[in-house]
Design a protein that fits this description.
Chain lengths: 458, 441, 297
């Protein structure tokens, strides 16, 4: 039976349960709603919950475990020759069977065809069985709750209790996401470090995963030293911050301290527009407009500028981060109490003297926090560098050369054909782990600093 | 401000340093200059930042606006029976696989009867896009009665002809450096002079899927892919985000556990998007076995990414509802849940929706995580369900941006303009919502 | 000078006691003085440091100060008193143009310092504030060291030519503010770490370090405890030797203790000015009397 039909049927049964529950609530007090503990609709909802929720839970469990159980059954029926092979090859066979089942690939191997047919057959049986179980659960749960309806039954409390359980589950999604991120990158990274020693990865000065592919065939391992990637990332982010911090900070100072209100009402949102532009657009701008411009400019003054220079990527990334720095600094600057400024003005200080000597020192922790957040964003930024920075992992501090970054390598390693056990693919997860840890530390420090700063003036 | 007015009998300051003294006056000049300079630095920073914005838009509009037009050729096509149905089989299957390219060739050759050499004939047929035969097939499939008749049909020209007509090809270049030969240019000029070439609004850009041929490549597939992805994201992130915000703001006790959730959410909002892509690849595709490249997985990943934004915005909306409303409802004997669903939530809803729309706008422009889960494949078909392989608008931009042809640059810019238009629309909607329901307590 | 129609109404003192509201219908605590009110008492002094003539302040639409005329004498302490929101702080802030920092605020009329109009376009507001210093209601030391707090003003005005001179000036100012002995061993510690009273004296030291001629004090003691308040009051009395001081205060006792002249403001009007002793013992205007005797405030 089709899954969506089953799902619709379960939901339909729940709706029916609501109707009957509500009717019975009216009936048990012969229409005098005042005698009920809760409103009739709560009795309906209670019945519907008992009808639907257990069934839905069983359904998701069933679907979660179904594929692995069925795959085992199918594998057991495979011909001996196909079954007794190394695990990685067996995985390929299973993959072929899955593809044949989904109809995305019509394999020519009759054994696989047969296995796929068997799989489909099993699935039909399994779904039919599931439907029967689910409907039975609906009926049992619904009728049990229906029987319990009585005037002094506290339906509302129970419904609200289950609603708050739902709310708690939703708020846990954030926690699960973090756990998921940590586990997924950590798990694959550990597999990577089984093949490549951790110290080689952390302190190696050479990065060339492509040769690793070739070297693999002759039994040698490639170079997976992440230092060149890290320096490349730092170079690009550094250039970005050199652009973003002065421009963002000065814009924020101008807007909050000097600008007439009309300039402020237009200037601020316009600046925010820069933050709303998708990064892929910046990447395109960097690759098509800025990089050729810088190359030609360099050529005209006799400088050799690579067509995928760190400068182009960094500068455009800086532009993207300007509003980030400016809006965070704006908040921070506005949090400096007016009394502090007044104290300086009353001594005969000019505006700029007040800003430089009083406002900025007072706002410094907050500004540092926002710059840290901006750095974390620059390090994690992907599209601009993918499109405008190069792939060559060079250990250089020259902004006119092409460098590569951690994010560029993650994308390069994972886009396109991949085998899941090669160090090349797993390396992407190790890089992901490094990226996650760096940004996490930066974020935690920055958020802590900013919070402490806010508390100071609240 | 002479010496007489400066305080007597107090700390002795050298006369030239007192207010109005020579040294002091000079200093005042310097301070005023410094003040002016600082102000100009600030103004300069703002102007430079905004100039980048203008430059960005200007460069993209300048590159992209031409893509909204496409050059069409008029062909007098002879739907010859012997070419289309050589064996008399007029079944749908036979018609759909008939030799339409031959029709196109014959038609363009017929337009220049004096071209006879084989090489020149090939050059001639290179003027017409390979999409022309699809066009003819559509005509025949819609109305098989055209077989055996003649009809003039407007078909797309190739990207090279298109760029020649749009003036993007430099005629003064030596022939070997041009994509069109002198002969081809003379034919195009001839067609132009007798009105057989025309620029029209490029509807294919909005309806078609991707293609290797620039003139046939459209963002229709990418728009549908983005739409499905956003649908999943909206349907999941909004209810979950609102529910989480309600719990954290209204029910959660203040303890270490909720502190942890709070820190967690703030951190998640700052995790690089590509890390979410890794999560999606490892969990949704490799662990749960959901279909690769599908809008479903894309939507799930973007949901996780958008969730912190929605939760933070929703919490802010909930805090802005004054406690007096809650107290009033509780005072009437409403349960806490009733108070929230009947009173607090409706008041906070506009703020929550605004937050959700802004989060969705961000998700719409997100590219990196989608690359990770394989939405980067070359997909010609427009996706028809949540599990079909699909690409998304920003990913399409990324794909086209890496193609060197001038025609793809133009289309990339056009796709960017469409993407930006969507984002402007969403943000405008958020602004309108905020303005309309803004309430001051 | 008096508004006869208001005073003649109260003929029977008993009735005034029973129904004070009805007894003075035009002058209540919540209504402004009638249009065209003129200040009671002598607004001028023999050698004025500053003088205000026909000063009006508007906050957007709101007319916050109405036709105020007042002289501030050299080396005198003048106290501005009146109920909350009467405009005394606003008037104080017009004297060194601190109102300029508020966008919607507009000032008309004429205020002069040593005969020079301080609202003159050519006048540099920065120089004005160096001559007319200000101490605020809440102590607002900069988030810097104690030394830097005091040295800040002299530094920006280039008042000293060497580090030794600057140190000398800082020490002098702190001594003058009576703070030196309490902080001399911790000049490098942040000014925000001092107690409230010490912070306020630090702010006074900061103000006098630039050798102002007039010091404006906006309720300088309202955030302080009685002992700290007593110290500040003592200080104000000493500072009178060298400066003209304008102090806004809520406390009538404080006004009586520290000032030579007192001005009473009521809802934007300057009702009465006079020698402090006369104002507190024998006020001429009914409103002043009402405030002094605690009938409203």
């Amino acid at each position: 039976m089709n899954l969506s039909v089953v799902l619709t049927a379960v939901l339909g049964l729940a709706a029916l349960a609501y109707h009957f529950g509500r009717r019975r609530a009216f009936a048990v007090v012969s229409g005098r709603v005042r005698d009920l503990h809760s409103l009739p609709s709560y009795y309906g909802m209670h019945t519907a919950l008992w009808c639907g929720v257990p069934a839905l839970i069983v359904m998701s469990l069933w679907l979660a475990f179904e594929p692995s159980i069925m795959t085992n059954l199918v594998v057991e029926r495979l011909p001996e020759a196909m079954r007794h092979v190394p695990e990685s090859q067996l995985n390929l066979v299973i993959n072929d069977i899955r593809n044949a089942v989904n109809g995305t690939m019509t394999g020519n191997d009759p054994a696989i065809r047969e296995a796929a047919d068997y799989y489909l057959q099993l699935r039909t049986v399994s779904h039919a069985a599931m439907a029967v179980v689910l409907f039975a659960l609906c009926a049992a749960g619904g009728s049990w709750a229906w029987k319990r309806i009585a005037p002094d039954f506290r339906a509302r409390n129970r419904v609200e209790k289950s609603m708050s359980v739902l709310l708690i589950l939703c708020s846990m999604v954030a926690v699960f996401t973090t756990i998921g991120i940590v586990l997924s990158v950590l798990f694959e990274s550990l597999r990577f470090f089984q093949q490549i020693p951790l110290t080689d990865f952390l302190f190696g000065l050479e990065w060339s995963p492509q040769t690793a592919m070739r070297a693999d065939q002759v039994g040698a391992s490639g170079a997976f030293g992440m230092i060149p990637l890290l320096t490349g990332t730092l170079l690009v982010s550094g250039i970005a911050m050199l652009v973003a911090v002065p421009l963002g900070l000065m814009s924020a100072l101008y807007l909050s301290e000097y600008a007439p209100s009309r300039v402020r009402t237009f200037g601020k949102p316009l600046l925010e527009v820069l933050a709303g532009i998708p990064t892929v657009v910046y990447g395109f701008f960097a690759a098509i407009t800025v990089a050729p411009f810088l190359r030609d400019l360099g050529a005209s003054v006799g400088l050799q500028v690579a067509s995928e220079s760190a400068l182009a990527a960094g500068a455009v990334m800086g532009i993207m981060i300007i509003p980030f720095v400016s809006s965070l600094s704006d908040d921070v600057i506005n949090a400096v109490p007016q009394a502090m400024r007044d104290g300086s003005y009353a001594l005969g200080a000019t505006k700029s003297e007040t800003i430089k000597n009083v406002v900025l020192p007072a706002a410094l922790p907050g500004i540092v926090g926002s710059v840290l957040l901006a750095i974390s964003r620059a390090i994690g930024e992907t599209m601009i560098v993918v499109m405008a920075a190069g792939l060559s992992a060079k250990l250089t501090a020259n902004p006119l050369e092409a460098v590569t970054t951690v994010t560029v390598q993650i994308v390069t390693l994972l886009v396109g054909d991949q085998e899941f056990d090669s160090p090349k693919t797993l390396a992407a997860f190790a890089l992901g782990l490094v990226l996650f840890l760096i940004t996490l530390v930066l974020n935690i420090i920055a958020l802590h600093v900013v919070r402490k700063y806010r508390e100071q003036y609240e | 401000m002479n010496n007489a007015t400066s305080p007597k009998g107090i700390y002795a300051i050298a006369p030239e340093r007192r207010l109005g003294g020579a040294a002091h006056t000079a200093l005042v000049q310097r301070r005023k200059a410094a003040e002016k300079r600082f102000r100009y630095y600030g103004l300069g920073a703002l102007v430079v930042s905004l100039m980048f914005l203008v430059l960005l838009f200007a460069s993209i509009i300048a590159k992209g606006w031409t893509a909204f037009e496409q050059t069409y050729l008029r062909l007098d096509v002879d739907f010859a029976t012997d070419v289309l149905v050589p064996d008399g089989d007029r079944s749908e299957q036979a018609l759909s696989s008939a030799n339409y390219p031959a029709l196109v060739k014959n038609a363009i050759w017929a337009a220049f009867p004096d071209v006879t050499s084989r090489g020149e004939k090939r050059q001639l047929q290179d003027l017409v896009s390979s999409g022309a035969s699809f066009e003819l097939r559509n005509i025949v499939m819609n109305d098989p009665s055209v077989i055996g008749t003649q009809r003039s049909v407007w078909v797309p020209a190739t990207a090279f002809v298109d760029s020649l007509i749009k003036g993007q090809m430099d005629r003064s270049l030596p022939e070997s450096e041009r994509k069109l030969s002198d002969l081809q240019i003379s034919w195009v000029d001839h067609l132009l002079s007798n009105g057989h070439i025309e620029k029209r609004f490029n509807t294919m850009l909005f309806t078609d899927g991707d293609s290797r041929d620039p003139e046939l490549a459209g963002i229709g597939g990418a728009i549908m892919g983005s739409l499905y992805t956003m649908l999943v994201t909206l349907l999941l992130s909004f209810p979950i985000g609102v529910a989480a915000a309600i719990y954290l703001e209204e029910f959660a006790p203040r303890n270490r556990w909720t502190d942890l959730i709070e820190v967690n959410i703030n951190n998640l909002a700052a995790v690089p998007s590509i890390v979410y892509g890794l999560l999606g690849l490892a969990v949704f595709i490799n662990f749960l076995g959901l279909p690769r490249s599908s809008p479903l997985v894309g939507g799930l990943v973007l949901t996780l990414m958008t969730l912190p934004v929605v939760i933070i915005a929703s919490r802010a909306a909930l805090t802005s509802v004054p406690p007096s409303i809650r107290e009033a409802a509780l005072g009437m004997g409403a349960s806490k849940m009733q108070t929230i669903t009947h009173h607090v939530l409706p008041l906070a809803m506009p703020g929550m929706l605004t937050g959700a729309i802004i989060g969705m706008a961000r998700a719409l422009g997100e590219t990196a995580p989608l690359l990770m889960i394989g939405m980067v494949a070359f997909i010609v078909d427009v996706p028809k369900s949540l599990t079909d392989p699909a690409t998304a608008l920003p990913v399409q931009i990324y794909l086209w941006a890496s193609s060197p042809e001038r025609a793809f640059v133009e289309r990339t810019s056009a796709a960017i303009l469409v993407l930006l238009a969507f984002m402007v629309l969403m943000n405008a909607l958020a602004v309108v919502l905020r303005k309309r329901f803004e309430r001051r307590w | 000078m008096n508004q006869p129609n208001t005073l003649t109404r109260i003929e029977d003192p008993a009735m005034a006691e029973i129904q004070p509201q009805q007894a003075q219908p035009t002058f209540s605590a919540t209504e402004p003085a009638p249009e065209g009110h003129r200040t009671v008492g002598k607004i001028t002094v023999d050698n004025p440091k500053m003088s205000a003539r026909d000063v009006n302040v508007y906050y957007g639409e709101k007319h916050a100060i109405k036709h105020v005329e007042l002289d501030i004498g050299t080396n005198e302490v003048i106290a501005l008193i009146g109920p909350s929101g009467c405009g005394k702080s606003t008037f104080l802030r017009t004297l060194n143009r601190m109102n300029d920092t508020i966008d919607i605020c507009r000032v008309t009329g004429n205020i002069s310092l040593d005969g020079q109009d301080i609202y003159d376009r050519r006048l540099d507001v920065v120089q004005l504030r160096a001559r007319v210093g200000m101490v605020f209601q809440k102590p607002n030391p900069f988030p810097k060291s104690i030394f830097d707090n005091v040295a800040y003003g002299p530094k920006i005005h280039g008042m000293t030519s060497s580090r030794a001179e600057l140190e000398d000036l800082v020490r002098w100012s702190l001594e003058k503010a009576g703070l030196w002995h309490e902080v001399k061993d911790r000049l490098e510690q942040p000014g925000t770490g001092l107690s409230g009273g010490q912070q306020q004296r630090l702010c006074i030291a900061r103000a006098i370090a630039v050798s102002p001629e007039v010091i404006l004090m906006d309720e300088p003691c309202s955030a302080l405890d009685p002992i700290a308040t007593a110290k500040i009051e003592e200080l104000i009395d000493e500072l009178r030797e060298n400066y003209s001081i304008v102090i806004v205060t809520h406390s009538m006792q404080q006004a009586a203790r520290v000032s030579q002249r007192t001005a009473y403001f009521h809802l934007g009007d300057l009702i009465e000015v006079g020698e402090t002793e006369q104002i507190f013992t024998n006020p001429e205007h009914k409103l002043t009397e009402g405030y002094i005797t605690g009938r409203f405030g």
